[in-house]
Amino acid sequence: MVATTHQQAHEPRRSTRWLNTIERLGNRLPDPFMLFVALAVVVLIASVIFAAVDASVVLPATGENQPIRSLISSEGVRFMLGSMLTNFTGFAPLGLVLSMMLGIGLAEKIGLLDVLIRRTVMSAPRQLVTYTVAFTGIMMNVASDASLILLPPLASMVYHGLGRHPVAGLALGFASAGAGFTANLLIVGTDALLSGISTEAARLIDPDMVVTPVDNWYFNCLSVVVLTVVAAQISERITEPRLGTYQGEVERVESDEPASAGRGLRNAGIAALLYLGGLATLVLWPDSPLKNDDGGLIPSPFLSGIIPIILLFFITVSVAYGVTTGKIKTSRDVSERMAEAMRDLGGYIVLIFAASQFIAWFGWTHIGSWLAVNGAELLTSINFTGLPVIICYILFTGFMNLLIFSGSAKWALEAPIFVPLFMQLGYHPAFIQMAYRVADSSTNIISPLNPYMVVVLTFIRKYDREAGLGTLISLMLPYTLAFLSLWIVMLVAFYLLGLPFGPGIHALMP
């Protein structure tokens, strides 16, 4: 797949001019790394001003009076220099994401994920193809952003082979992988990444608060089922009728699977069953070390150790596949493929260095607590609480996604402000995290700053040479509006019925 530069062959239509304006404005934003550097400077200056006027905040939970501390002071300078390395190495998301990518990256580098996706989509029964593409796209965030460029061309090939419009398949693949990015039946890297940031933000108010990767799992599992049906219905009832019958021809892309891929998948499946069977036996064992002292699982060492468990699962199935297909010949091949996956995370690691400093400074100065407490008091005084404020936050995040595409960067920006603020209003941080995720995911596919939109537009132009950004946006809008509306309804239902979003996690604080 080769991405070509999008060139305007003619004056953009009126309907797409506002999108071009958003794109130009968004491109003027600094790189996320420099954005966090700038925010850290803002915190530094604000701390001096707040400290100069003797600002302070009283924590409602403890009654403790916290003065705002200046970073430009003897104590502040010592903190900035002395904590710089520990801010970075101790930043919760860093270890979680690196650990997850050791396993997931190994599966990707040896070709297991690619082959599994191809086989899943291309072997689906004809009458279930639409649902299979939608389900696969939603589940594919296990491969992170790779899902946004792997599935769309495969789905278009399947649709074309069935005599259906290939652009409809491409649109469904991109929409389900992008707008459904936060949902999954598995615990994936996104869960680890966001929960780590949420934990850091929540500890600005409660030093003992922990948000785990499974805290949104129940909601995500239900989302997979509901969104699969909705995405398929939009494709069949809106997208395909609008596109009509495809008349052209396009060069078919052949699979580059190794000859032993089938045996590799079989052995990987056997390894997965053996691993899960052994894990289930260990969990259900009467005196299992994975249970808590009362013999339960909420909380338990099993949930707190879910990341290492998932890591070992991916390594197990990847090694089984790699050895069978010849992708792994020696133990050195395993470490080399893992190293390749780690190299892909170079940009993320650089970003986290700046983000960790910003969040640590924000917390040390107590500005985060001041904003949270006073913001909560303001909202309470004007009676703007409950579901309306949550819905407004979702819409705000959806708008922000048009300007800042990176989900982790945006959450690192929002979490230190909104998580403590909503905690003061009585909401669990995992609930706020879920509200953020549904807004961020559903608007992924209409953000002009989405770097994969250019790649997908290139795929579309293989079938429609006149297609432009407006074409892609118009195809994605029905999915975005449907997913966002449905997710808001689900959040409201979980809130009103008091249903848990994950093991033991409800919307309101206990």
TrEMBL record:
GO biological process, one term: p-aminobenzoyl-glutamate transmembrane transport
A GO molecular-function descriptor: secondary active p-aminobenzoyl-glutamate transmembrane transporter activity
Name of this chain's protein: p-aminobenzoyl-glutamate transporter
Organism: Kushneria marisflavi
